[in-house]
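Hi there. Long-time user, first ticket. I'm pasting a complex I've been working with (about 519 residues overall). I'd like to know whether the download I got is complete or cut off, because the file seemed smaller than I expected. Thanks.
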Amino acid sequence: MAEEKDPQGAPFSHPKPYGSGVTRRQFLAVAAAGAAAAAAAALSPLRDFGGFPPLREMLQKHFTELTPGQKKEVLERIASQLQEKYGAAPQLTALPPMDGVQYAYALNIGRCVGCRKCVYACMKENNQSRDPQIQYISVLQMEKGNIDVEKSSIDYEGQVPKEGHYYMPVQCHHCETSPCTKVCPVKATWREPDGIVVVDYNWCIGCRYCEAACPYHARRFNFKEPYLPEKDFNPKIDYLSNRPRPKGTMEKCTFCLQRTRAGKYPACLEVCPTGSRKFGNMLDPDSEISSIIRDKRVYIFKEELGTVPRFYYYTDV
Amino acid sequence: MSEQDWEKTDAFRNTEIPTLLLIAVGAACVAAAWFFYTNRHTSEQGPRAFVMKPEYYDISPVRTVGKKLETLGMACGDCHSDPTDQDPRTAPEIHNKVVLKHGSNNRCFNCHNNGKRDFFAANGGGQIPFSKVETLCAKCHGPTYRDWQRGTHGRRNGYWDKTAGEQKNLVCIACHDPHSPAFKPMKAAPAPLKHNTPGETH
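Hi, the file is complete. Here it is re-exported in full:
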């Protein structure tokens, strides 16, 4: 077709028909259509955009800089947002750290049977997303006689404990020299005076540096809008721990701050059928945690990294 | 380079490159369509319901602890009032069903009080009430009893801060069957879902 328009067939004359029989006009039309489609695809996530957050939320200060009055206002705003979303009226608190309390956790690695009840009690307590599924505790099934976590598995099923294996649940170690808080470019995660490493979900920008820095793989990121059924919503929540997280923020174990700062044991400890999990105040010489650190054979996971965890593994069997 | 070579090169430019460009644009369109499709697919599919069954996070202990020493709802003292010199397991009916897997502790009256059947046997023939069952176990398991008192062995529920609320120590028999004390295997709650946890390397 193109050849007929140019009977001379001069090799360099214009318009030169292309070998494929496509004119410049046709080519540009296809290219423009392709570019439009690509641009539409690139912008398509905007269809999920749910509108801008309220101005007050955007202008909210860092949690540690809020005055008591501002804190009250923030809590009221978040509580009303959550009530709208989940139906139930939440009891949103911002519990302060207690004086003279340093939390620590110990796990009896010889008694854990790997039943994963801690994992789901944690999910239930802390309002994690069910889809995508977010879990703070990874229960590693380890070969007996081996402490190499690279050879562990987390996908075992059925009756436990399995022959020739032991179990090592791993969660946030609440390190004294926490690598995750050092790398945060906006100080959205920090270590509280009682030893709990927390995240201000409203301040987090979602860069995931902390996830990369954590040697225990303890931090979880909300890649998608977290999905939590209304019936599963736990209304007893705290600003720094188990209030539902927005998309694009980092979350992690907070030693159930909403419980422990009220004097209760964490949810994972309450549920453990073997009594392998121990928690308490390190500064109290009569607490079980002090007794373990003093008298038991204590093992610190990745001690050589110098993270100084507040999470100990021990054994007495 | 000869003139003929130039011609060849330009001929190549004029014929092949537009075709390649067309293919690239076509591929971009296909990719765009695919992105559209997958995006629409996930947003229409909605959240997949992961069912959290209550048994995954049930805090009740593995055994239920009664209030008294009993068999079939009757206190032992209802039938037994006198000491026996027989092994109760040789008696028919109820007691022959008891299978004792408690190591070398294979005599009934090491733990049960032969004279007062509603009680356990303390050292020297004394009586231990059901409510103090841990002191019976402590007869042999001294270090474990010490650890249980400190809270490092066994389950402790409620409040770590005793000034804030009640702290509850679960007794030995809430987890251990006294006739077969080894902790029994149990069914694990489901493994984490693999496909929707980005960053998971396992």
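A couple of notes from our side: The longest strand of chain A covers residues 103-108. Chain A touches chain B through 80 residues (CB under 8 Å).
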